[in-house]
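Task card 7
Instruction: Convert sequence to structure tokens.
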Amino acid sequence: GGWKTLSALFVETRGFPLTKFASHDDLELLFSVTSVVRHGNGNSSRTLFATNPRLFSNQPHSDWFSYFTLGGEPAHSIHNLEITFDDLVRFKDAIIDFWETISRLHASSSA
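Output:
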């Protein structure tokens, strides 16, 4: 299962959707990045590249011709994934927002 499955399970177990979080988009991006890191090249890396190409370095030899003649890799290769310091700060902030929001939502639901 992917993000949609996780989101559905979250509603089922917590009683509110992940869309309640201001950091929802960053949490989804973090989920996608970690999926690529866990699974390597494949559907996850192709999807992440299609939706967030800025996360992949520009490789001069990523077309089909150079792939076979020069040994280049496809543009969506995990070897081209580049997570910047700013990305890490963004992911850290999203995780903090996640836990702070959970605390607020639980406090308001038990009041």
